[in-house]
Amino acid sequence: MLRRVIVALALVFLALHTAQGDEGTQVIKVNGAYGIVNKGANQGLEVGQVLVVRRRSTEGVLEVGKVKVIRTTANRAAVEQMAGKRGFHLVKGDMLFGLSEVVPPPVLRPPERTTRSGRAARKDPANTRSKMRPISEPRPAPKPERPPTVTRSRSSRILTKPWITVNLGTIVSGGGFSGTSVPSFKFGASYMVPAGHGFNLGLEVNNVLLNTPSLNAQGLGGFNKASSSLLEAYFVAQKFFGRRFFLESGAGIYRPKVRTVSVDGVESSYTSTNFGFFAGSGVVIPTSQYAGFMLRGRLHNYFDSASRHYLGLAAGFRFKMR
I need a surface site. Which of 27, 257, 294, 303 has the fewest CB within 10 A? Predict the structure, then answer.
């Protein structure tokens, strides 16, 4: 009888001791592979102590992993996830239970901030955090996101580069310019910069070589030789409607020059610099996105001793600078 009483008391004492020991420590906060528990040094936790993570399932209470105490305060402690079953991650609410062994804390590296080696990361791929921070250290503020970098492709850069146009043509006489322009040869080039919304702005220079015999038609007879030319230099504005048709206008300097040699060999020349303007239209036949042929006509008017106007016709080739 006494033996049975002793055995019963022993079982009761063992049950009470087990219940007290299995009260467990609860994880109250998790950050990656690290967590904070609701007990500390006052409750008997020590740095380096290993605790077992147990969870309830349909098969009962199972041991799913282990954690190690890495830092303690009076009533709180920080733990680090150790080895566990495949797919094991520490979560808030996990219950931890003690073991008899105590793992000594690392000596070479302070527990406040360590860097995991590549070998350790390969051994424990579930623990993806590479740094450990103290419990009291505030989390760093997130870095402000930079606006996405806009990279311009080569084709978009070429589209914003200037147009170069080389043109050849002739002029058709009219008004006070009649008699000095048939036949004639006109050549020149222009430099146009895209200004957006179909507009191009730029500078153009042309030279017109006029026929010599026609000078006699203006009462300049009695000369053995004669030559004349007309220099055009002006600012141009173009407005494209689509990729082909365009309108244009401009204003600038018109500089006619006449050189004569009389029968007795006396040379004389006449030149003047005058202001004028023009307006016209044209069409572009594109050969690619960056080049094409151009046909255009312009009505010019400049102010000499009298207002002189003429029609200029030209054909050319335009291309983008690379």
Answer: 303
